[in-house]
Amino acid sequence: EPKRKAAFGSVGRRIPYRILHVINQDGESLGNMHRAEALKLMDQHDLKLVLLRENAEPPVYRLMTGQQIHEEQLKRAEKKKAGPKAGMYIKELSFSSAIAKNDLETKTKQIAQWIEKKYHVKVTIRQAK
Predict the structure, then answer these.
(1) CA geometry: angle at 16 spanning 28 and 26, to 5°?
(2) Does the pLDDT at position 4 exceed 80?
(3) What CA–CA distance (Å, rounded) separates 129 from 125?
(4) What is the pLDDT of residue 16?
(5) Using an 8 Å Cβ cutoff, are 56 and 29 in contact?
(6) Helices and strands, counts by H and E, the chain
């Protein structure tokens, strides 16, 4: 089964990697350290570890406060809203410039139905010879 991408947030104490690259809450790099060291640092400063880049070598984690995590989640939600919608469909219709009148009327009705259903419609007209 495919691995689902986890939501941005604290990873808790379950970290599958032994060596991590850690960044503090101010954005300064603390370098590579063992998982136990990072957890100790997290507990001392009462912060949470958040995975930033999993496919880096070693994986990059950041120490963040709960407020910073919340703000980052809000930023990511705004970016997701601004992007293209997953359920958006584009209907494409192509016909010749020598199309018969009744065929054109039929295609026009079809386009009107698609627009009512909130589809994006792309019409291409080829030049007749």
Answers:
(1) 15
(2) no
(3) 13
(4) 84
(5) no
(6) 3, 6
83-101 residue pLDDT tens? 656 667 788 888 888 889 9
Structural contact between residues 8 and 73, judged by C-beta atoms closer than 8 angstroms: yes
Q: Is the pTM of this model over 0.85?
A: no
45: phi then psi, degrees, rounded to nearest 5: -95, 5
- Residue 34, beta-bridge partner list: 19
Residues comprising the chain, all counted: 129
Question: What is the distance between the alpha carbons of residues 85 and 38, in angstroms, rounded to a whole number?
Answer: 38
Task: Give the position of tokens 């039929």.
Answer: 106
Nearest one of 118, 124, 115, 66 to 93, comparing CA atoms: 124
**Beta-carbon count within 10 A of 49 CB:** 20
Q: CA 32 to CA 48: how far, in whole Å?
A: 17
Q: With the C-alpha atoms ordered 97, 99, 102, 105, is the resulting torsion angle positive or negative?
A: negative
Tokens of 27: 């954005």
